[in-house]
Amino acid sequence: MLVIETGSKMTKSQASEVTNILFQTKGLLKKPENKLQDYFKFCPRIIAMAAALGVFFGCLIISGQKDVLSYVCVSVMALVIIAYAFMFRSLLKYRKKLLSKDDKVTITFDEEGVEYDNHNDKKMKAYYDGVSFVRGFTEVTGIFPKELTGILICFNKKELDRVEAYLRANDIGVRIIK
């Protein structure tokens, strides 16, 4: 049995990474080796590019180039800005939620699976037959379910070597990606 206890709040970089993982879980389940994109950098860039193109096409309309294409492009750029602004707002809200948590969490690995206990109200277990892979990122390690309806468990990357040693010592066939 391997027990991992966390008692401190996440750092901002850890919370950002967990948020990025959650927003990209579907893609990571399809291609586990894919690079994790930093949406906290990506969204503002897309918003800025769409705003610049929107201003460009708006200037064309103002200068007398009043064709349908300019109106369509301005409308599309406005929709892109709104969509990415809402996505960025969701990212920030979720990261803020993670940063405000001060839960003591215990993650227990045994012969059957991984148990997550936050000592308040949630105690969940992910059985190994429902675990797709374990992957280490820059700041955190994630235990990914085979299906999107499963449990995604994230903890500090410093524990990845202990988890890998435990899984190999007990001959548990879960794929590990570093």
Structural write-up:
Helices cover 48% and strands 22% of the residues. With 178 residues, the chain is α+β, with helices and mostly antiparallel strands. The chain has two domains: 2-37 and 101-177, PH-domain like (Roll); 39-99. The strands form two sheets. It has a four-stranded antiparallel sheet, with helices on one face. Strands 7-6-5-8 form a four-stranded mixed sheet, with helices on one face. Helix 3 runs antiparallel to helix 4. The longest helix is centred in the middle third of the chain and has 33 residues, at 68-100.
Offer a concise description of the structure.
With 178 residues, the chain is an alpha+beta fold. The chain folds into 2 domains: 2-37 and 101-177, PH-domain like, CATH 2.30.29.30; 39-99.
Rounded radius of gyration (Å) = 21 Å
Shape: elongated
Beta-strand residue percentage: 15-25%
By oligomeric state, this entry counts as single chain
Number of strands: 8
Largest beta-sheet characterization = 4 strands, antiparallel
Q: Average pLDDT across residues? A: 90
Q: Would you identify the regions where 5 or more consecutive residues have pLDDT less than 50?
A: none
